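#structure-requests
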Amino acid sequence: MPNILICDDEKDIVSALRIYLSDPSYTIFEAANGAEALRLMETEDIHLILMDIMMPVMDGITAVAKIREFSHIPIIMLTAKSEDIDKVMGLNVGADDYITKPFQPMEVTARVRSALRRYLMYGGGAPAPDHFRIGGIELDDAAKVVTVDGDPVSLTPTEYEILKLLMAHPNRVYSPKEIYEEVWKEKPVGTENTVAVHIRHIREKIEINPADPRYLKVVFGQGYKIMRQ
């Protein structure tokens, strides 16, 4: 049974999210700031976090950065329409996605289910072993392990799924919308920036020089591809 943590200092928002996520298969936990969320994670097995950005004591950006020091669980930021810079900051420190206030119930449930599905698949293993190797990058989908020149690389579930998609189809160019559809399993609307941030994170982890990548290439105006070596 997935455990979902809602971290927001506004009680009305927490109550609304509880209603939207009133699925008997979910157990909901609450925190009013990032510090409370971190303390709760010490005692509870959390599988997904809905994290507000602006909170007292510890804001959401700081909390996500600290959580990423020890956990790769999916984190969805809760943002206002005017917080474009904060959205990018959240993705930069390791958030997987964001939802803009005011929330649409169907969007909340769809994004939560999508993120949980990716995370549980990532942690549970695949039914058939699949190996992908391109140059010095090796992806073992049975063990959910990625190595570069023999050294293990730590990827978030979303980063892993993007890399797997591109490695499974070397030299094929995927547009940001195609990547979003394949990985998030949702209709891509205004998702180019989200994909671009994840691509940059992957580059930082698999490339010797992310500014001059050997593997993960941009095809300007079209999208991204992994180059077969």
